From TrEMBL:
SUPFAM superfamilies: FKBP-like, Triger factor/SurA peptide-binding domain-like. The keyword Transcription does not apply. It holds the Pfam family SurA_N_3. Gene3D superfamilies: 3.10.50.40, Porin chaperone SurA, peptide-binding domain. It is found in: Cell inner membrane. One of its GO terms (cellular component) is plasma membrane. Residues 497-531 form a coiled coil. Its main location: membrane. One of its GO terms (molecular function) is peptidyl-prolyl cis-trans isomerase activity. InterPro entries: PPIase_dom_sf, PPIase_PpiC, PPIase_PpiC_CS, PpiD_chaperone, Trigger_fact/SurA_dom_sf. Belongs to the PpiD chaperone family. It comes from Pseudomonas abyssi. The keyword Transport does not apply. This is Periplasmic chaperone PpiD. The lineage of its organism: Bacteria, Pseudomonadati, Pseudomonadota, Gammaproteobacteria, Pseudomonadales.
């Protein structure tokens, strides 16, 4: 993983420029809306007197929101775009625009410039602007229009800005370097291995004594932890597509009419064979060849034999020209007209189609099998009901939406549509069972219009067959839970804390004994009725050792030759490790490994360059005069 990070940071500045532009153009980061084509718009912010217009901000916010929605919808179709916090998004995007303006001004003040030739070369070599490997001006115009660019000049200005910022960044990152000592330190650290042993000290008895005074004190000191969640009691109206099936009525005439339409679509099938002579440059020669084939057949030669010998349709000629069963409309009009005029066994005269000249033979005729009305009745009735239900469901959904929008509660919509108002809750913002498990419902319930203003919600599409409307019947604000209700919970938590503290004290006491050589390692293991688990030459990337243990072991100081380093280390899930660090080593051949020193040096230089640029960026922000409007 470290070497991969080194490779990622060891790219040339030219590569970074190109990647930066490609990311800008094709990843659509939201920066394409900032190319200063709205100078007379209202101002959202100013950076050292340079305006960022509100129009620029709104364009960038809209694009960022669209990208965010696309990404979140990939996580599941339950996502509701209205769940995005527009105020937070707008603040975040404005911060990005300000940051970009600061960097661009810094690059200009530092004297960085981008030539027109460099922009031209990047545009000409961008694959998305090419057709068949060559730059295409029409393709270029289409792509930048789809990106929201008003003109080629606006796009070029944007590319120039991005290149300026990238060049400014690389002025720091590409000039950073690593000293031999820095590189050697990284080599030693990355290739270090450690010998250690560990004993697990679990949390002890979790039934420790906890007094009522302790519980009350903890409750008073942490009152905010013991609040009831904000909840709502909802009234709901649900409209289901399935409920309209019982109301659907189908008369016999409609069934008969649909039956006639269905059987009218049944087509006669004809099995055909053909001989095809394709027309190249000489129509007369092709016609002469097909007439010669027709003469051979008329003289008594087998059609299949002639097809194998003459036909240019290699797919069918191996099978005597057989095309299988065909319904009308499978080929062009001339072919169809000739085929459907034949009697079984008959061969047509030469027929000219868009493919060439044909001889067509009708080898079999299959009349359509017409099912009886009774055999199709159930299917036809169901299809007619589905059509009715679809219309009724759409009409009722629209009526529900209109009534809910106009009515002061859900009683009127319920009466008009014959629905029942149901009560749901109390439920928290995170939802619950039934309708409350749907994020769209909970998002609507806690929206300002429904929660604060007391309106009915908009129509909520729960799935393709179900819609609903909700309103808040009761809003339950967070309230302090009584001590009596949480006493058992606090007692359990304090008892565990005491047990955890006891484990910490025991682990540290044992580590101290070992440091002072009051006990040896074997005696400690015997007292704990455990064994030291030994790990030799463990690296930082060891896969069979818990990462939290490995990370803490590599943070311990190097042991002396006389005595290991002993420590008590906390386990993430509770309890402690008693550790004996016995040795630290670095692979002797690491410095001679092919390519390693260069990679390590590049990594250190890359990290140093990033830190230099971050410091310069921070200084620009600190010195900039930034006004938000």
């Amino acid at each position: 993983m470290m070497l991969q990070t080194m490779r990622d940071n060891a790219q040339s500045w030219v590569a970074k420029v190109i990647v930066g532009v490609i990311v800008l153009i094709f990843a659509l980061t939201g920066w394409e809306s900032i190319s200063r084509f709205t100078s007379d718009a209202e101002t959202a912010a100013e950076v050292n007197g340079q305006a960022i217009s509100k129009l620029e901000l709104e364009q960038a916010v809209a694009l960022q929101k669209r990208q965010l929605i696309q990404q979140l919808q990939q996580m599941g179709n339950q996502f509701d775009p209205s769940m995005i916090d527009d105020a937070f998004l707008r603040t975040s995007v404005l911060d990005g625009l300000i940051e970009r303006a600061v960097l661009l001004q810094g690059a200009e003040e530092a004297g960085f410039q981008i030539s027109d030739q460099m922009i031209d070369q990047l545009i000409l070599s961008t694959p998305d602007f090419q057709v068949d490997g060559k730059f295409d001006a029409n393709r270029f115009d289409v792509v930048i229009r789809n990106m929201g660019m008003p003109s080629r000049m606006a796009f070029r200005d944007l590319v120039r800005q991005q290149l300026m910022i990238t060049q400014y960044r690389n002025g720091y990152e590409a000039t950073a370097f690593a000293t031999p000592q820095e590189r050697q330190q990284l080599v030693a650290l990355e290739n270090q291995t450690r010998d250690f042993a560990v004993i697990d000290i679990p949390v002890g008895d979790v039934n420790a004594e906890v007094s009522d005074e302790e519980i009350e004190a903890f409750y008073n000191e942490n009152a905010s932890q013991f609040m009831t969640p904000e909840q709502v009691v909802l009234e709901t109206l649900t409209l289901k597509r399935a409920s309209f099936f019982d109301q659907a009525q189908v008369d016999e005439q409609a069934v008969e009419e649909m039956y006639q339409r269905e059987i009218g679509n049944l087509a006669e099938q004809r099995r055909a064979s053909h001989i095809l002579v394709e027309v190249a440059d000489d129509d007369a020669a092709a016609k002469e060849k097909i007439e010669s084939a027709a003469a051979r057949i008329a003289a008594g030669e087998d059609f299949a034999t002639v097809a194998a010998d003459v036909s240019d349709d290699t797919g069918s000629s191996r099978d005597g020209g057989d095309l299988g069963y065909i319904v009308k409309g499978s080929f062009d009009d001339a072919f169809d007209e000739a085929l459907f005029a034949l009697q079984p066994g008959e061969v047509s005269a030469p027929v000219r189609s868009s493919y060439g000249y044909h001889l067509i033979k009708l080898t079999d005729l299959k009349a359509p099998e017409v099912p009886t009305l009774e055999s199709m009745r159930e299917e036809l009735v169901q299809e007619l009901k589905v059509e009715q239900v679809e219309r009724s469901f759409v009409e009722a959904s629209q009526e529900l939406a209109n009534l809910a929008h106009e009515a002061p509660d859900l009683a009127e919509p319920a009466a008009a549509l014959g629905l029942t108002v149901e009560t749901l809750g109390p439920v928290e913002r995170l939802g619950g069972d039934g309708l409350a498990a749907n994020p769209k419902v909970m998002n609507a319930a806690f929206s300002d219009d429904v929660l604060k203003n007391g309106f009915n919600s908009e129509l909520i599409e729960l799935d393709a067959d179900t819609v609903a409307v909700v309103r808040v019947k009761e809003h339950l604000e967070p309230a302090q839970r009584p001590l009596a209700d949480v006493s058992a919970e606090i007692r359990e938590q304090l008892a565990y804390n005491k047990a955890e503290q006891a484990a910490a004290e025991r682990a540290e006491a044992l580590a101290e004994e070992l440091r002072e050589q009051a006990s040896d390692a074997d005696a400690v293991a015997e007292r704990l009725a455990a064994q030291w688990q030994v790990h030799e030459a463990a690296s930082r990337a060891e896969s069979d050792i818990e990462p939290a243990l490995l990370r803490q072991v590599f943070a311990l100081p190097k042991p002396s030759a006389e005595q290991p380093v002993y420590a008590s280390l906390k386990k993430p899930a509770g309890g402690y490790w008693l550790v004996s660090l016995r040795g630290v080593a670095t692979a002797e051949d690491v410095q001679s490994a092919a390519g390693s020193p260069d990679q390590y040096a590049l990594f250190v230089a890359g990290q140093s360059g990033e830190q230099d640029f971050a410091a310069a960026q921070q200084q620009l922000r600190t010195e900039a005069d930034i006004e938000r409007h």
